[in-house]
C-alpha cells in the first residue's frame, strides 16, 4: 500500500489515521458552522473532525451569509432559538446561560470558522448574525491549538469552542464522547508536529510569534 494512502473513514493519511478517536457524539443542539472559504482546504481545520463525530452539525462555506440560501433558510426557521458564539463588544458570557429563562433556549448554536480576521469579516458582512443572541466564552481556557496562533488571548479553535459551549448549553451531553474528540484533536496536532519535525516546530511556533495573514 502506498505511503500516501488515505484512510477511507477519516480521510487522513493511513499513517495518521484518527479513527481510533472518532466516535459519534449524540448532540441535541445543532451546530451550525459558518466556514470561511479559506478554511476549506486547511489541513488543520478542526471542523473536519467535527463533521465526522457530531450527529447534528451543518457546515456552510461562504463569506456573505445574507446571500447564502441554505443559511437564510435556517435563519428563517430557527432564529428564535439560535445563539451565536462570537466575541463581540455586545457578547454575553455563555457561562451565564443557565441563568437565562427557558424561553431563550438555544437549539441551534452558530459558530464562525476562520481566522479571527476572517470570522470578523463574516460577522460584519452578515447582518442577520447581529440580531441573534450573542455569547462568548470567558476566555480563561488555554487553547491546545499550538500550530495556529490567534492574536486574541484565549482564542480557541472552533472544535474547542464548540466542546466548551455544548457542555454549558447541553448539560446532558455525554462528556466522554467530547473527551474523545478532544483527544482526536490533540492527536491531529501531534501528528502535524511530527511531520514538520520538532526543530521546525520550535523554530516557527515557539520562538517567534506568527502573524495572521
Ligand atoms: Zn481513519
Question: Would you count the extended β strands for me?
Answer: 6
- N- and C-termini, Cα separation: 37 Å
Radius of gyration: 17 Å
| Poorly predicted segments | none
H/E element order: EHEHEEEHEHHH
Describe the global form: globular
Task: Give the strand content.
Answer: 5-15%
Unique bound compounds: zinc ion
Number of spatially distinct domains: 1
Give the neighbour order of strands across the main sheet: 2-1-5-3-6-4
Q: Mean pLDDT, as a whole number?
A: 85
Structural class: alpha/beta
Record keyword descriptors for this entry.
binds zinc ion, 6-stranded parallel β-sheet, 213 residues
Could you explain the architecture of this structure?
The chain is of the alpha/beta class and 213 residues long. It has one domain. The chain has 6 helices and 6 strands. It has a 6-stranded parallel β-sheet, sandwiched between helices. Helix 4 (158-169) runs antiparallel to helix 5 (175-196) and helix 5 (175-196) packs across helix 6 (198-207). It is globular and about 50 Å long. The site of zinc ion (ZN) has 7 residues, from loops. Zinc ion is lined by residues 7, 9-10, 12, 17-19.
In brief:
The protein has helices spanning 47-53, 69-78, 116-125, 158-169, 175-196, 198-207, and strands at 30-35, 57-61, 82-85, 92-93, 108-113, 134-136. It has 213 residues and is α/β, with parallel strands linked by helices. A 6-stranded parallel beta sheet has the order 2-1-5-3-6-4, with helices on both faces.
